[in-house]
Protein: S1 motif domain-containing protein
Amino acid sequence: MNSVSIFVVILALVIVNGAFIPQESSSYRFRTISINLASSEGDTVLYSDNDADDSKKFSKNKRWSSLNPSVKQRIIKEGQERAIRNKKKREPAADKKRRMLMQYKKAMVENKKSLKIMRPLAPNSKDRTKLVDIAIGNVYNGTVISLTDFGAYVDVGSECDGLLHVSQITRDVFVEHPRQALSPGDLIDVRITKVHTGMKKMQLTMLPEHVLEDEDEDEEEFEERIPLTDLALDDELWGEIKRVTSYGAYVELGAVRQGWLHFMDHPEFEYGSKPHDLMSVGDRIRCWVSNVDTDLQRIKLTANRPNDLPGPRREMKIMSDDDYY
Structure:
């Protein structure tokens, strides 16, 4: 009997005896069989399912065992992190929102603790000076406790923290926010300007004494200031620049409010120029009223002569080299 006949007979026996048997899971598994194509003297196994599985398992374990222990730990750690990420992706929206909220609150608490400044004296210490004992004009060394959009709160060793307004920090440059010049925990020298014992409030300044005196003289000089209702559009005024900012300057006109002059309304304005290049504190300037807002108590100015005003106009001409010959 040749090999083909033997194979046909074995296949028929397998089908008749029910090689496909049902399992508990209602699926069918083919019996592992070994086909022997050899002489009666000795059988040679050409293929076996068990042998294939064992070889794969052995090769896999061999490869894993040959890896460095640190590499194994890294692979395990990456797998755990990947599993956590996949679990978060399947997380319900309500649980995710709750988890993110708790993380946000925890971060806010940690940030608040990191920004907490140690005071030289405890808030309820008996060594703190009472407000009634603080004299206006005295200079104290204080600690910056916190910053706000309008100023900074400074601990000078009194019952309450004093407010240092953003306009009282310096006159050299325009300070838009106190963080441009101060930081929590800084030690600074401040002068007491106002004390309100009933409301537990105190106002401070970092400006030099001569600057405060000049401002007081300006207030006393104009006993009868011009009300906003007496100002009309295109009125010509002379004023003195008191403060230069990043966008323009405040001009003292003798009115109840200082006027605002934008740097683009300056006659010498050129594209690329900055306010400090065109205007300086103490400069005398002629300007015209461009807008008056009585509700907000504001005066807007321009240094360019309005076109609809009668009279001669000064024109600036840029001469070329040929004009000189």
Residues 19-41 have pLDDT under 50 and may be disordered.
